[in-house]
Amino acid sequence: MKWGRTVALVMAVTLTAAACGDDGGGSSSSGSAPTGGSKENTGEVNLLSAAEPEEAAAYQKIFDDLINSQVDYNAAVESSADFEEQFQIRAEGGTLDLAAVPQPGAIAGLVDKGSLVSLEDLGFNIDDLNNLFGESFVALGEYKGAHYGVPTNINLKSMVWYPKAAFDAAGYKVPETWDDMLALSDQIVADGSTPWCVGFESGGATGWPATDWMEDIMLRTAGTDTYDKWVAHEIPFNDPAVVHAGEVFGDIMFHEGYVLGGADATPDIAFGDAPLPMFDTPPKCWLHRQASFINSFFPEGTEAGVDYDWFPLPPLDKDGTLFAGELTVVGTAGDRPEVVDFLNRFMGEEVQCAMGGVTASSRISPNVNVGPDCYVNTILADASVVLTEANKAGTGRFDASDLMPAEVGSGSFWTGMVEYMKGGPDNLESVLKTIEDSWPTS
Amino acid sequence: MSLAAPPAPPEVSEAPESPKRGRSRPKEQPIGVKKGGWFVRITVLVIVVIWLIPTIGVLVTSFRPENLVDTTGWWTAFGHPFRAGQWTLENYRTALDSGGFQNALLNSLAVTIPSTVMPITIAAFAAYAFSWMQFRGRYVLFVLIVGLLVVPLQTALIPILQLYTRGWVVGGVQIIPDLNLNGTFLGIWLAHTAFGLPLATYLLRNYIGSLPSSIVESARIDGADHFTIFWRLIVPLSVPALAAFAIFQFLWVWNDLLVAYVFLGGTQDTRVVTIALADLVGARGENWHLLTSAAFLTMLLPLAVFFSLQRYFVRGLTAGSVKG
Amino acid sequence: MATEVAERQRERPPEGRSLSPGARAALRVAAFAGGMLAIYVVGRLALDFLRDKDSNRILIVLVAIVVGVGGVFALFWAMDRVVNWLPESLREGVRPYVYVGPAVVLLSIFLIYPVFDTLLTSFKDKNGQSWVGLDNYRFVFSDPSMLRSIRNTAGWVIVVPAVAVSIGLLFAALVDRLHRGESLAKSLIFLPMAISFVGAAVTFRLIYSYRPEGFGSNIGLLNGIRSAFGQEPVPWLSEQPWNNLLLMVIMIWIQVGFAMVVLSAAIKSIPEEIIEAARIDGASEFQVFWRIVVPSIAPTIVVVSTYMVINSLKVFDIVFVMGNAEANKTEVIAERMIRWFFISNNDGRGAAIAVVLFIAVVPVLMWNVRQFREQEKIR
């Protein structure tokens, strides 16, 4: 085949030319001085987040306005419904830049596998971070002497929502103590309605809102010290203090006529649907205990402070403020100067304050320099004040189930709560024992 | 024998060059036209209706406004179909407006088409070898490949990602270099090709292996070599099976969410249609009006592909398994 | 036709008849080198183009088809040629391995290697780093939730293939008798396969949807029917043991289309004479079906059943998104694996559960080997 020879010659020439050409490479970064990162910049920074899609879209806009317009890399936020799975796959697979992790308990395992880069290695000064976010929050990302997460979000959990207009019209008063709250519930029952709307369904994560109830009650019955011991497993899960908290929980849930649909229906009601009967005319229920994000599930057109409002979950024997949030961690692929630069900006006041102004979002910034006037509605502004006060007073505590080992915090605790609701008050002890038995020994 | 027409002509209508494989009945003469009229028709109708109900529910819901979807069952829409405010295109508009949908569509095509044609080619060669060539380890290798059908692909994701980003190092020696395939189309094609190979080989081998041995043997006697037999004889004969598997693989890759998310990511420029729609729906379980319209949008193209090629599908996957 | 193929090959003149053996060899080497260079350069250019995320998508598709099909085909062609240069004695021994080679290589990297990786990890701790011997397996066979998942999976493996294949077979046989509408009927039954698993989950969550008193009227079909008869709505997805069966219904709904289409075409390939002869002998339709049709398509039934069994073994999405499987007692093996591996971050346990899955498929494989061998004997 004669053409073979000619082709061979042509190809040889082209090949040499191609081989001598430049290799594909990344762009180098310029701009404000990043302090760390050992790999080459690629021009793209990716943040994996568990936010809802509308929130993520809003954040992308903020990044575009405040960050991308000023630097030569492109920061993009990705939202994923299967966040835990994607996070782990990417972290272990080595393709993760940044992730905003709502469960600090997951950090330890990944550090052991070598999938995360410590803040110290990236050049962050921990003292500076402590000043910005408070030492207890930063310490949540600490493992084996190094820190791995920057606090970038916080949300308040100890909130009770109510349909303000109807509530006031019916002459009810916002309770200041737990007993007042129970008395209010009795009054609502006497008036022929049902006080509480509760829903725990959430697909594969069904049961998580119930853990929030338990944690809030633990803070108010056993106090912050016992709470800390509970989280650290210095007391067993079926310790009398926990049993007592469970009983207080059951006093509301199993009380005749207190919960719309009954306690055993709660694991089948989607958590996002649960508050909706409050907005019927007349309201079918009047009280809904849930974190600060829930108002994005309220019907369109309802106004904060007018149609609905909230009061802090009242204290019982003790008091405490439950909150949750996110720590932003850096994966091995993110060990680059541009990622460090992004993180600096992301946690800084400018971006955090802008994020508070997003209507689709109900996030509050843990950055102490971000004031209440950054928030788009009074609900968030008031909540942020509550959080700052609590953290200053030392009574704020992070969501326990997000701190416990995943087998418990994202597993047996959820399941146990569902079984408690379905099985009734008598099986509280056995439920707690099962959870205790599931705690990993290592 | 009361069949009206004479015995069926020996030709099979759709593949012009296919040899006689026994006599296939042409469509005009089903088995036993004597019995079964009403009973058959009614049973078929019942089964079809039952099967369609879930889909109809989704379709109807996708055209209803949100407030109606949340408060009434979809079947109530049939009670008063012409009342104002019953139907809306808003859900579809929201889905399509979600930004970058067109781009997602192109991305999906860019992922799906190569991921369909590549495994077919590789599997066809392998299937031919398993069917018509003698070599040691034939059974073992084939059974191994079929056995791989059971491997949950989630177990493969992390090792493959690590391979893509770090390469393979054994004892300090870089055996497979760091190709940095993460986030690239090539990376996802290779993954989908590999994941689709077990089924492709299984089905194609079944088909190719049951072509009449007389054909292959007479070609060999006449001096044709394996490559020629494969390319000029087997492949034309296998078009039905190849097309059939193509549809199946197309559907699977098009509807895939996990592999695309892991290997391509969910950012605006590389995400595929399934991710774009999952993003629309989010973690909330009960936005039924959006969920249903999103589900239907993802269905449209694969349905179109199926309807247009379904005659191949029907004939293809099968004829291999029967003794002609 | 086969004869023509062979003749066409013989007609091609042998290469380089007018050159000396030395020149011929040199030409061959140059052609080979040229071919390899061509492939390399084109491949590199294509690869770089394909790796660039910003390239025009349509162009990418076209390049991909060319590279994917053309490249792959060229690879096989080239390898086949190379085999031809081997000494006669080795040629036909090596060729089969060349044909299955690319498949085996790809599978080794993408599936077999992860299998071994998983196997090793199953003996390690939760971080996949230190050895713990059989601890994970001890867990798999003693944890109540795991045992339940094994029982449930056994249920899936028995019920889903049996029902899906039966309905598929029945439908295929019936629809074959229709004068008109056969294509449409088959397409409508196949429709669920075009819906992704996510789509199917959405569909059936709507059907099984439950709202207790006070949360509005029920918008789910099942509870709608119950309300119409004046009965209380039921939370189907958490109601045992119905919830397991209802989840299986979803899978059956999807898979019957596949079974039906495959079996239908198999039925169509049965030679007419056999059926006619049986009828002439006075067999009833029922007997024709059981004594003639079913045995004739037995190999197809094997293939379809195998695929269904393996799919049922692997089922995960359906169970995972429909609620807390452990609280609802609907766990299955693959769902447990994902939960332990990704949610609880316990690599060792997740891997051990995956290995259980691998072992469970062995009986199916052995059955297939037997069928494989028998088919070849007949051929």
Q: Can you characterise this structure?
A:
- The complex is a heterotrimer of chains A (442), B (324) and C (379).
- Helices cover 43% and strands 12% of the residues of chain A.
- Chain A has helices spanning 2-20, 53-68, 83-93, 107-112, 126-133, 135-139, 164-169, 178-190, 208-221, 223-232, 240-253, 337-346, 349-356, 378-393, 400-403, 406-423, 428-438; strands spanning 44-49, 74-79, 98-101, 116-117, 142-143, 146-147, 149-156, 159-162, 288-289, 309-312, 321-331, 396-398.
- In chain A, α2 (53-68) packs antiparallel against α13 and α16 packs antiparallel against α17.
- The longest helix of chain A is centred in the first third of the chain and has 19 residues, at 2-20.
- Chain B is built from twelve helices and two strands, in the order ααααααββαααααα.
- Chain C has helices at residues 2-11, 21-51, 57-85, 88-121, 135-140, 144-175, 182-194, 197-207, 221-228, 242-268, 272-280, 285-296, 298-313, 317-321, 325-328, 333-343, 347-360, 362-378.
- Chain C is globular, with a radius of gyration of 28 Å.
- The mean pLDDT of chain C is 82.
- The chains are: A alpha/beta (442), B mainly alpha (324), C mainly alpha (379).
- Chains B and C meet through α1, α2, α4, α5 and α6 of B and α1, α2, α3, α4 and α6 of C.
Keywords for this entry:
heterotrimer; A: 442 residues; alpha/beta; 7-stranded mixed β-sheet; 17 helices; globular; disordered N terminus; C: 379 residues; mainly alpha; 18 helices; 0% strand
Alpha-carbon distance between the termini of chain A? 70 Å
**Helical amount of chain C:** over 70%
Q: Rg of chain C from C-alpha positions?
A: 28 Å
As a percent range, the share of helical residues of chain A equals 40-55%
Shape of chain A: globular
Structural class of chain A: alpha/beta
Total number of beta strands of chain A: 12
Strand-residue fraction of chain C?
Answer: under 5%
Flag low-confidence runs of chain A. 1-34
Provide the structure class of chain C: mainly alpha
Order of helices and strands of chain C: HHHHHHHHHHHHHHHHHH
Low-confidence stretches of chain C: none
- Principal-axis shape of chain C equals globular
H/E element sequence of chain A: HEHEHEHEHHEEEEHHHHHEEEHHHEHHH
The whole-number mean of residue pLDDT values of chain A reads 85
What is the tally of helical segments of chain C?
18
Using the CA coordinates, give the radius of gyration of chain A.
25 Å
Q: Please state the average pLDDT score of chain C.
A: 82
